[in-house]
Amino acid sequence: MDVVVDTDPGLGTPGADPEDALALALALASPELRVRAITCVAGNVPLPDAFANATRWLERLGRQDVPLAADDAARAIVEHARALVAIGPLTNVAAALRADPSLVERLERVVIMGGAFAVPGNVSPTAEFNFAEDPEAAQAVLDAGLRPTLVGLDVCHETRLPTVRPRTPVGAYFEAVAGPWLASDGPYLYDSLAVAATIRPELLTVVPARVTIAPDGTSVADHDAPANALVATGVDVAAFDALFAERVLPLL
């Protein structure tokens, strides 16, 4: 499956969430996915930092062959995506859909890390970070007819990073840069779960819903209205953990 990963990687920026890097590693290590491009978006860090962080991480992984886009991210999505994993704010995805509305017809699978439905938000009592960073873009993407799978905090908070004991240069680099995050109380694998759900949709239990995004980023799911998304309500944690352990931990 030809996939584009749209991301706001923080690994390399002090204090920023580094977990996007693990999600990228999972995508690149999975034979089910052919990563045609990685597109960077502002969110977790400013756009220049996201691009620099992604560049360094691809170098560490030995994957400089993968095209990386920042200012031309929307064009890269239009040109390369047959599946799309969006693990940052949806600014680039909305721009790509504006540039070429027929993209909707070409995308076979869209998975978005975003939303908080039956659980509290992580930037306010009701809002999740990615949707809150660009709520207009999030609503535009939901209104485009893609019917994406939304991997929200409801299921992401079921995932935890296992203990990492670096055994490779990549792992040593990750530990050196992401030490405070690794030392936190069970870091969640938000973005890695979205990538995993792209590889194996059966990991998630989903329900159709009409999702709207308030101006503050709050996501509301109406299960009685015509659906514009599939909202994840459950996750097979054991199967996800096994996939992550098989594909990512050996790199570290």
UniProtKB/TrEMBL annotation:
Pfam families from the UniProt entry: IU_nuc_hydro
GO molecular function terms noted in the UniProt entry: purine nucleosidase activity
Inosine/uridine-preferring nucleoside hydrolase domain span: 71-240
- GO annotation, biological process: purine nucleoside catabolic process
Query: What GO terms fall under cellular component here?
Result: cytosol
This protein's record includes keyword Hydrolase: yes
Keywords assigned by UniProt, alphabetized: Glycosidase, Hydrolase
Write the protein's name.
Purine nucleosidase
What is the protein's species of origin?
A: Solirubrobacter pauli
Source organism lineage? Bacteria, Bacillati, Actinomycetota, Thermoleophilia, Solirubrobacterales
